[in-house]
Amino acid sequence: MAACKLQGTIVRNQFIEKKVAPKERNSAVVQAVVTRDKFNVKIPQLATTYTPLPFTIPLIEKAKEIIVETEDTTSAGKFGRFGGKFVPETLVVCFNQLEAEFKNALHDDVFQAELATALRDYVGRETPLYHAQRLSEHYKSKNGGKGPEIYLKREDLNHTGSHKMNNALAQAMIAKRIGLKSVVTATGSGHHGLATAAACAKLALECTVFMAAKDMDRQSSNVRLMKLLGAKVEAVNGCFKDASSEAFRCWVGDLENSYHLSGSAVGPHPCPTMVREFQSVIGKETRKQAWEKWGGKPDIIVASVGTGSNALGMFHEFLSDTDVRLIGVEAAGLGLESGKHSSTLTKGEMGVYHGAISYLLQDGDGQIIEPHSIAAGMEYPGVGPELSFLKESGRAEFCVATDEEALDAYERLCKLEGIFPSLEAAHALAILDKVVPTLPNDNIKVVVNCSGRGDKDADIVFNCRK
Ligand SMILES: Cc1ncc(COP(=O)(O)O)c(C=O)c1O
């Protein structure tokens, strides 16, 4: 299969695709050339020194990074004008080492073989691409008998119940390979914490998970499971963003022994790239399974967007298939006008947070606006730099679903298909109500990423709907 070949230019916020000669395609990486004006970046928190990487960055086919050439500098980890590594100088060397270890692992056949075996035998991959017939019928019945065929990518069937395991296991293997003894991380919904706790148990690593106290309360079943797996779960005031800050602090206090295992597609380079790479198995399998099932590609792919890990895992494989529509769904919480939402790409502005440039929910002074969502895993005021770039380039579309719409979608999937989606995945399912009526009626295939299972959310749904 040809490597990703999105190539082009952004001129005044518009992505202009550059045609790639067929012979270049096998080695093409996602590449964009950006001509940009000087932009005003707000630097609200962690204001630190930006240290660009050396000028010559090899194009690494497997990493499929977006390499950006600006007028004056070239650096990895940039997606258009987003991304980068905004960290104190003392930490730059740590992130550079991590990048080197990541690239070594990507090119190490032994590591790749071990990971493939673990994904198959421990995680349970590949996950099915399930034809949701009754859900498809539901939409057809509202549309004069016509409508798309809807398929679910069943990431909820992974061991520990979500897509988070794909990345947690791979990064825990990297921690072990480096010779570190302990892992520190943060979780919102508890899915990433649970996946990390399981991977650490398997690999005999100590595990500490930071989690907002209110998330420990609403996702208590996952907290119990993490503890059973031997992880220490530390409560933090605030929400997922505060747990993330605490995990960073804890890691910085013990750089010698600990590994910071990022589960979200945010943070300084190489974190977003690593997470995307280890999640990209979702899209690769989907392409193969779509071919086996109907001899083509999906027409539309839908995924929820918290920070972007499951969306990018799905989208990345299809970036250069411009006939495949990519739709990301953010959490509109109590409504976009309420101010209580997590719709960063829809309502945010560019800024720097947790070590990278991305869209952010921020006020006029560049201070973070507290996000809200009924789904703990969607409640983050930022979003990954790569998704920020996909929005700006127009390659992916982004829309929103409210708490109520997600609750409806959760119940609908339970009743029609006997599947409990996590409330995060329910946001992606909810958007079908708006998208399906706009589609032409001829043989459209829609794939929704069912990123996690929703047992953890059963009490929330029950209490909201009783
Ligand atoms: C099952 C599930 N889906 C989606 C998300 C949203 O995060 P991301 O956008 O990184 O996939 C989370 C976050 O915790 C999650 O647990």
From TrEMBL:
Gene3D superfamilies: 3.40.50.1100. Residues 124-448 form the Tryptophan synthase beta chain-like PALP domain. Keywords: Amino-acid biosynthesis, Aromatic amino acid biosynthesis, Lyase, Pyridoxal phosphate, Tryptophan biosynthesis. Pfam families: PALP (PF00291). It catalyses: (1S,2R)-1-C-(indol-3-yl)glycerol 3-phosphate + L-serine = D-glyceraldehyde 3-phosphate + L-tryptophan + H2O. Pathway: Amino-acid biosynthesis; L-tryptophan biosynthesis; L-tryptophan from chorismate: step 5/5. GO terms for molecular function: tryptophan synthase activity. The keyword Thylakoid does not apply. GO terms for biological process: L-tryptophan biosynthetic process. HAMAP family: Trp_synth_beta. This is Tryptophan synthase. It comes from Medicago truncatula (Barrel medic).
